Amino acid sequence: MSDQLQKYLFEDQTVRAEVVSIRETWKEIQARHDYPSAVQKLLGELVAASALLAANIKFNGTVVLQLQGDGPIGLIVVECHADLGMRATVKLREGHAVPDDGTFQSLLNPHGGGRFSVVLDPQDRLPGQQPYQGIVALQGESVAQALEHYMLASEQLQTRIWLAADTGCAAGVLLQQLPRHGGKTTSEPASVADDTWERAQILAETIKSEELLTLTPDALIRRLYWQETLRTFEPTAVSYRCTCSREKVADVLLRLGREEIDDILAEQGRVQINCDYCVKSFEFDPVDCAELFANASAKVRHQSEARH
């Protein structure tokens, strides 16, 4: 697999590691958009980060990472399912130039209003259940540092992340000290757990972006931790998947209401919606819209009759 995430566990079970390398999926995301190089790099890093986080969710659902900016970049969104199917998009602010040497902070947070948010959205929600959303200020000089800040603030877990992206690959490494039970990490004394954690970090600090972008997960881990005994898990494939559909667009039109749709039809003769992620276009003419609202009214009427 050219697109895969690999998990590892240190021998004393106090630290876990994840490595992701995404090539074909990343190229597919890029092929649908033409972003400036500085924006493309940030998007690639967030793509890799989304896989690293989604690999750890304990439910069937989606992780959505959002970088909301007050600079040239208004929004970067990556949506990654538990099975590592993903899609991504960027919204640039009109009238704002994107310099090639733009930095994480200058592109997203020049006025201090930037935010980093993580949304956990279960696929099979219980009645009344809402997606969980955590939001923190946009701190740090990179996507990795912003995500580390979020993890510490929201989960109180020691987490280190290294990310890299170019036009050919989006890749990343995540290290995490496992939760302590009864004041200890697993069954090991705190000193042993802390020693493993410190050693894992020190070795990972030697990672070069070139290594992240060119080596397979196993090759990278062997280079970093050749003296360690690690448990290796089965790799998980990463893929591109956009969940847009004509049915979902129809639901959006129904929520807008008949009056607003009629205004759009009067002005444009049709309603056209483009998916921000895959740029697929969905078109509804006056007949389509009339059928849509007629069917919705009939459905409501049948439900009302059934209740009585």
Describe the protein's architecture and organization:
By secondary structure, the protein is α+β, with helices and mostly antiparallel strands. It folds into two domains: 237 residues, Hsp33 domain, CATH 3.55.30.10; 62 residues, HSP33 redox switch-like (CBS domain Like). The chain contains ten helices and 16 strands. Strands 1, 2, 8, 9, 12 and 13 form a six-stranded antiparallel sheet that branches. A hairpin with a 6-residue loop joins β15 and β16. The mean pLDDT is 90.
State the gist of this model.
By secondary structure, the protein is α+β, with helices and mostly antiparallel strands. The protein has 10 helices and 16 strands. The strands form 4 sheets. Strands 1, 2, 8, 9, 12 and 13 form a 6-stranded antiparallel β-sheet that branches. A 6-stranded mixed β-sheet has the order 7-6-3-4-5-14, covered by helices on one side.
